[in-house]
Design a protein that fits this description.
By secondary structure, the protein is an alpha/beta fold. The chain has 3 domains: about 140 residues, 3-Layer(aba) Sandwich (Rossmann fold), CATH 3.40.50.1980; about 200 residues, Nitrogenase molybdenum iron protein domain (Rossmann fold); about 35 residues, no CATH class. About 45% of the residues lie in helices and about 15% in strands. Keywords: Amino-acid biosynthesis, Histidine biosynthesis, Metal-binding, NAD, Oxidoreductase, Zinc.
Length: about 425
């Protein structure tokens, strides 16, 4: 990892969003059109082509759920249940209620909160299994009151889904679990097929083809976000321990060769120690072939003159995950403006949030924490404004409203009000 000294508090370090190539975009559009035209047949064809398995049925059967429980030991199942309880507890705190106010002139105004009817959750496959993605995407939707939740995930070459994914989904009571991945699964969720009924919103991470497909179908359905490669920033002073910082940086580097792991510190000594420790730990990491290019190409260490400058750098990065390993992390909280999730102190290592603590691990990436938030209960609801004018309120205000309409040149608007005086 390269070490850079920063003398200015204002720097621009944001990475560009992975937008995909023209070839990838064309592939995605072709896949979506094929699914729209041929439904299940296209899904099965693409599953055989991309996942190298021939299926006859897309829906996960009860026998597959039973087999999944036999694969996991009782302790692991209990851990999944504990994590689900923590995640549900946190998201219950986010619930909003409809509200109404009544004014003296008889006007009633309000906001009606309504859960979405149907949500599709994409659970990635590929190099790892992600039961945590099931928990993090499904639970806030359930808390919001969504009645129909569908899971799609790419099958392995045996035609099954990972045991952890199936157990997590079953623990949450999900009955619609489909063995389909990639852009074709996104298309199925957006437009529907003979087997998969269309949904109103698609959430969940995936590879570049999934991200491009979500972008393509946005407008037909809603989506959560276009997530880029995972990223972590560790803000540390001389009190941090190099081996722990290195381990936390590598926890994100092992996700993806494009993942970004950055240390921002006031201590050149810590910077040098972390650089050595990262190399040491890389050599024994099972996913070194993924983590090493991530560290070498997207990892970095920035050394600042003081903590204020370090905070400025962090805010400029607006990271997905931010760990604060300083003597007094809480004292910096109000100064840290832009981060998807903030982990305070030595014992709040990033994986604590990834799996178990309760806050959502679906977070804004690529600097978008400047203006967006983690996945939450609000993402699975919509709001309707309620307006009820009394005769008194109408008589008092219709003239003002008509004049406002004519200011904008909208005569029919004005007349719609004045007709009620005839």
């Amino acid at each position: 990892m390269e070490i850079t000294r920063i003398t200015s508090e204002k720097v621009s370090l944001r990475r560009s969003i992975e937008a995909g190539t023209d070839e990838q975009r064309n592939v995605v559009k072709s896949v979506i059109n094929e699914v729209r035209a041929n439904g299940d047949e296209a899904l099965l064809t693409f599953t055989e082509k991309f996942d190298r398995v021939r299926l006859t049925n897309l829906l996960v059967e009860e026998e597959e759920i039973e087999a999944a429980y036999k694969e996991l030991d009782d302790e692991m199942i209990a851990i999944i249940r504990d994590a689900a309880e923590n995640i549900r507890f946190f998201h219950e705190k986010q619930k909003r209620e409809s509200w109404f106010v009544f004014k003296e002139d008889g006007t009633m105004l309000g906001q009606k909160i309504t859960a979405l009817d149907a949500v599709g959750v994409y659970v990635p496959g590929g190099t790892a299994a992600y039961p945590s993605s099931v928990l993090m995407n499904v639970i806030p939707a359930q808390v919001a009151g969504v009645k129909r939740i569908v899971i799609t995930s790419p099958p392995n070459t045996s035609g099954t889904l990972p045991a952890g994914v199936l157990v997590a989904a079953n623990e949450l009571g999900i009955k619609e679990i489909y063995k389909s991945g990639g852009a074709q699964a996104v298309a199925a969720l957006a437009y529907g097929t003979e087997t998969i009924q269309a949904v109103d919103k698609i959430v969940g991470p995936g590879n570049i083809y999934v991200a491009l497909a979500k972008r393509e179908v946005f407008g037909v359905v809603d989506i959560d976000m276009i997530a880029g490669p995972s990223e972590i920033v560790v803000l540390a002073d001389e009190s941090a321990r190099a081996n722990e910082v290195a381990a936390d940086l590598l926890s994100q580097a092992e996700h993806d060769k494009l993942a970004s792991s950055i240390l921002v510190t006031t201590s050149i000594e810590l910077a040098e120690q972390v650089k050595l420790e990262v190399e040491k730990q890389l050599k024994t990491l099972p996913r070194e072939e993924i983590a090493r290019p991530s560290i070498e190409e997207h990892g970095h260490i920035y050394v600042t003159e003081n903590l204020a400058a370090a905070v400025s750098v962090v805010n400029e990065l607006a990271p997905e995950h931010l760990e604060v390993l300083t003597k007094d992390p809480m004292s910096l909280l109000d100064k840290l403006k832009h981060a998807g999730a903030i982990f305070l102190g030595r014992y709040s290592s990033e994986p604590v949030g990834d799996y178990f603590a309760g806050p959502n691990h679906v977070l804004p990436t690529n600097g978008t924490a400047r203006f967006s938030s983690p996945l939450n209960v609000d993402d699975f609801t919509k709001k309707s404004s309620i307006i009820s004018y009394s005769e008194q309120a109408f008589n008092e205000n219709a003239g003002k409203i008509a004049k406002f309409a004519r200011l904008e040149g909208l005569e029919a608007h004005a007349r719609a009000l004045e007709e009620r005086f005839k």
